[in-house]
Write the structure tokens for this entry.
Amino acid sequence: MICRPIADETAEDIASGETEDVLDPAVPVLYRLCPAFADSIGRFRLVHDSSKVVDRWTATLRTVHFFPNPADPGEYMEEMPVSRIDFADSKAHPQLQLADWTAGAVRQWATAVMAGSAEPFGTRLEPLVKPWVIDTIWPDSTPPSERVRPS
């Protein structure tokens, strides 16, 4: 009940176009993944496929270190370890083709896992995909149907 006015106001802002992308995961995912890559390779140039969401938020991503950290009052957000953010067509960048294939393979496998099915293609992808995802993006391999839910 306490959140209802805020939810209604947010819905109105989104419908009016005043607030965009508030629920799109691309921006926070980039913000969390880029430092993980930088830990291994240092600052880098990010080449992203065409994305209206990421394009709209590029300036914020580049200046995020000027914003207060909502999870740690009194501290600021960490700087993005990205020297540039460029947008490209996957036809011109084999790396983007590989990223698209990888995302599709993970999606195919994850869909089969979530559905609890032994879909043949998803099952064949598991040995390749599971090591990339489990204990990296997903915390563990316990199927959703077997997870203990807090009461």
